[in-house]
# Entry
Amino acid sequence: MRVEVNGEARDLDARTLGEALELLGYGEARVATAVNGAFVPAAARCDRQLAPGDRIEVLAPMQGG
Amino acid sequence: MRDFYGVRLPTRLMLGTAQYPSPAILAEAFRSSGACVATVSLRRESGGGQAFWEIVKQLGVRLLPNTAGCHTAREAVTTAQMAREVFETNWIKLEVIGHADTLQPDPFGLLEAAETLAGMGFEVFPYTTEDQVLAARLVEAGCRVLMPWGAPIGSGMGLNNRHGLRTLRAAFPDVAMVIDAGLGLPSHAAQALEMGFDAVLLNSAVSQARDPVTMARAFACAVEAGALAAGAGPMPVRDMAVPSTPVLGKAWL
# Structure
């Protein structure tokens, strides 16, 4: 299905956020996730069903002031 | 020294991790500054996040994630939740930006986000102004630390409103306060500590210096001097001259 990952359209064969992260190569990465602007904790990713058009954010540690 | 949500910090310096010439200089600047807290952020993963995580872990200091770039309370709350999971800390430097040019906080969004986050168990470090009424509302919302600005972020101007900051410091004697933003020189940091602020948070002042490592050391000396001076009780300021050499016993010439 077509979803948006960090602002880019992607076609992913994934039913859940957990599956999507595996496909994107973030399975083991230290990242935090949100779907449609709402935080999804790591423990809930495999239960979070995706729907076409969902906006997924995958955020990682970055420099900051 | 006041504590930060129950944590006693060994030094008075917090340092940002952005805009250094290299990761090696970032690490060396931390060592040279003696900073005990590093600010960090979250951004879309584009390949560098995992390497940066390894770098910050090696710094061996406490992490203070920020919500930089958030313009609404909702964005800031979601960012804070994500930061708590990634950085494994309840500390959050809460920024809700109200104006793109001055980067000054949106006081209404800031208060709303602070209330929400305090209710979720976060330990909020709100980036605020010297406004005493806003400070009172943030403290009511559960903030035990305030981070008033010295000047606009990245400006290097120092303490723009010393009267306002002094009034704020005096109004909340039990609240730990960190001067965040706008400092450019070690003398600015020393002034902040002399006025009774508990710590300063720097980034550009160190990372944008020609020699960040040496500048970090200069700030370390400045905050130590400022803290010693504050503890030593500065003399009162007078409008008129007062001779320090005894007048009594002066020769009649």
Summary: Chain A is about 10% helix and 35% strand. Chain A has one domain: 2-59. Residues 17-24 of chain A form the longest helix (8 residues).
